[in-house]
Each structure stands twice: as structure tokens, then as C-alpha cells.
Specification:
By secondary structure, the chain is α/β, with parallel strands linked by helices. Helices cover 47% and strands 19% of the residues. This is Abequosyltransferase.
């Protein structure tokens, strides 16, 4: 079995060595491993980093685009370049934890029929200091390792977590089939990989969740924040509504389940970040205008998330102080 570690990247030269070193440090596995990097026309020293590591890997594939084609294009391109039976989609600023490849190899050997698997993550600081282990984003129902069957069940358990690129490993042949005959370009919303996985599990409705933290997530380094906090929030809200509608149909139980999870998970965390970062009131006003029409039907939204949109500024300032104190204590 060959495992391709697929790394789409753009201007991440200063982070790639951490990832490469974490791959080189892996032990205890027998499968063949290739490292594949698709560079979206980086203007930094990415190519120099690649050349420095080229002789350290048994197989390192690197291709650089002539211009930046966007993140979604790069997610598809990276799998095109790979040759493994399975592809581990990997953010270029994250790292593999100790024993990660061996653990994934063991699952694939025991569950050969799966379309892919998701793995837990370890939350690390920007400097990669360990903070805590997070098996699933808050609000989701699955907490222990196990196989999931049926596209609806898979997305009800994992939909929001599938947004995390580095936590997903896919069967390359099935991925390629979906990309070949599905309207993937309609879902260039930063989450095209979630759409492809959705179509994969509709064809092969078997997915595995490995709860062990196998990926180190570098927190506070979201490249999509470069366009501002509101636009980052909008990617989650609009993108996931489109995905849920396209995969399961507007109004279906799974459609509502996914949107409800986003309203109390991804959206809640974006708003909480806005509180912590002292975002202007206009951020919360625009967020309310975007989200209330979509999520007002869900009681959980009103209980957990809506207060962040409705609280007066003094309360938000107090909340910001409390959250920062709790983070410092942890």
C-alpha cells in the first residue's frame, strides 16, 4: 500500500520544514510513503525548501503553478499529482504527531473497504507548543473511534470536522472518479474537498473516524483570515449551506442537521474569535444579517450562538476579558 501525503501550499516556506521533519520522524510503519506538494505560485522560498528536503524523502513530488489558481483548485490538483492508494490531505502549516502514519496504516489494513477516514487533532500554538487534544469539534456527536455507514450518518457526525483539511485521508481512485464526473467547480467555496468526500461516501458509504490525535493543528494561522474576519465567517456559513443543499437537498433532515451544527460550531467559534479580537460592531451586525435568516429556525442557535450577536458592547468586553483569562489559565 502506498500513502501519499498531499500538501497544497502557498507562501508557507517558513512552516514547511516543521511538517517535513514530522514526516521524516515517523516510525513503525511498513507502507510506502510519498510526499506530494502542489505550490500555488508562491512568491517566497518554497522551492528552496523543497530542494533542501528532496534528498531526504524516498519520493517527493513537487509542482509549482504559473499563477495562483485558488485553494480549491489546489486541493484537486494535489490529488492529481499523487500516486498512492490513499491520500492524506495536509495543510502546509500543520504537523504529523508521533506514530500517525503507523496508526492510519493499521486502520486501512483492517478496514479495506472504506472510502476514507478522519483523524483527531492536537491543538498547538503558533509555535507548535501542545495545548490540548481535540477529537472532534464541539457540537458533534461522535467521540470514539469507529466505522460509520451511510452518507447521511457520516455527515451528521463529521460534516463540520471535514472542513479541517489535515484530518482527512481519502481513497484516491474513488476521489478521482467523483472529480471526473461531478460539477466540482460549482463548489469552489474553500471547501471543495468536503463536497468531493460527500459524493465519495454516497457511492461508497463507509468511513472511519480515528479519535486519536494524529495531526498537530497550528492554531491562529488561518490563511483565509487575510480577507477579514467577516469574509472568513461567510466562507463557513455560505459554503456549508451550499454543500448541504448540493449533497442532500434543501430541506432534508441532513441538510438541517449540518446547518444546525455549523450554527453552533464553526459559526460560534468565528464569533468568539471576534469577541476575543475586539472586532468592530459592524462585524457582528453583518454576521447577524447573514446568519439569522438561515439559522433562526434552530433552537440551539438561539441558546448558544445568538447571544454573541445580540449582547451589548459592555457585555462583549466583559466576555472578552473572561475568555482571555480562561485561555491564559489553561
Amino acid at each position: 500500500m502506498r500513502l501519499s501525503i498531499c500538501i497544497p501550499t502557498y507562501n508557507r516556506a517558513k512552516f514547511l520544514p516543521d511538517l517535513f521533519d514530522s514526516i521524516l520522524a515517523q516510525t513503525g510503519y511498513a507502507c510506502e510513503v510519498e510526499v506530494v506538494v502542489s505550490d500555488n505560485a508562491s512568491a517566497d522560498d518554497t522551492q528552496a525548501v523543497i530542494e533542501r528536503y528532496r534528498g531526504k524523502f524516498d519520493r517527493l513530488v513537487y509542482q509549482c503553478a504559473s499563477q495562483n489558481m485558488g485553494a480549491d483548485w489546489n486541493y484537486l490538483r494535489i490529488v492529481e499529482l499523487a500516486s498512492g492508494d490513499f491520500c492524506w490531505l495536509m495543510g502546509s502549516d500543520d504537523v504529523l504527531e508521533e506514530g500517525a502514519i503507523a496508526a492510519v496504516e493499521q486502520v486501512i489494513a483492517a478496514q479495506p473497504e472504506i472510502a476514507g477516514l478522519s483523524v483527531g487533532r492536537v491543538i498547538r500554538s503558533f509555535e507548535l507548543e501542545r495545548r490540548r487534544e481535540e477529537r472532534l469539534a464541539k457540537g458533534l456527536v461522535l467521540s470514539d473511534s469507529g466505522e460509520l455507514h451511510g452518507a447521511d450518518a457520516i455527515f451528521r457526525s463529521l460534516a463540520a470536522y471535514l472542513a479541517y483539511l489535515s484530518g482527512q485521508i481519502v481513497r484516491r481512485s474513488l476521489w478521482n472518479e467523483v472529480v471526473e464526473d461531478s460539477p466540482v467547480s460549482d463548489y469552489f467555496n474553500a471547501y471543495v474537498h468536503v463536497y468531493v468526500i460527500g459524493r465519495m461516501v454516497q457511492r461508497c458509504p463507509h468511513w472511519y473516524y480515528l479519535a486519536e490525535g494524529l495531526v498537530g493543528w497550528r492554531e491562529d494561522n488561518d490563511s483565509f483570515l487575510s480577507d477579514g474576519e467577516y469574509n472568513r465567517l461567510r466562507i463557513d456559513v455560505v459554503g456549508y449551506e451550499q454543500l448541504a443543499r448540493g449533497l442532500f437537498g434543501a430541506g432534508s433532515p441532513t441538510y438541517h442537521h449540518i446547518n444546525r451544527d455549523v450554527s453552533t460550531g464553526l459559526l460560534f467559534r468565528r464569533l468568539l474569535s471576534g469577541v476575543i479580537d475586539a472586532a468592530p460592531r459592524s462585524f457582528f451586525t453583518k454576521a447577524a444579517q447573514l446568519t439569522f435568516p438561515l439559522y433562526a429556525r434552530y433552537p440551539a442557535f438561539w441558546i448558544k450562538t445568538a447571544p454573541l450577536l445580540l449582547l451589548p458592547r459592555p457585555a462583549l468586553r466583559l466576555g472578552r476579558t473572561v475568555v482571555k483569562s480562561l485561555r491564559a489559565a489553561s
